[in-house]
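Quarterly update, task 2.4: magnesium ion-bound model.
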Amino acid sequence: MSIERTLSILKPDATRRNITGKIITKFEENGLRVVAQKRIRLTKAQAEAFYEVHKERPFYASLVESMIAAPVVVQVLEGENAVAKNREIMGATNPAAADEGTIRKEFAESVEANSVHGSDSLENAEKEIAFFFAQTEIVG
Ligand code: ADP
Ligand code: MG
């Protein structure tokens, strides 16, 4: 076990419905701390770059449009095994397959508008945190 940091995004479907506090409560109740946070409007170029790994997928264009449709809240979460812990708290990508009590089960609107993003590995967490935050903006 070790203390990790991971990148979290509260997606446009969450800011639009004003449920960011409910989602952050899930993280805090499950042992993760918000050590950096800002509300931003992603540009199309930023959304395309962030999801570049999915460029060839049929849902890429629609995903990019959905991510720029309203503001997002980007966060750094810190805690024991934060990368895997956050994925557990989020639940499966498709809310229909997500476990009870997870964010996506409770809040996601669809497989695309699924309320949250979370880094999928420690290596990607470091890259994704650096994509949005300067070290000086992260206060543990
Ligand atoms: P996760 O966010 O759970 O890591 P992926 O990395 O596979 O999932 O996909 C990135 C995002 O792309 C998902 O969170 C979701 O918003 C969207 N997405 C994934 N699969 C689909 C799909 N089949 N149809 C529409 N959007 C999808
Ligand atoms: Mg992913």
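Highlight for this quarter: The longest helix spans residues 122-132.
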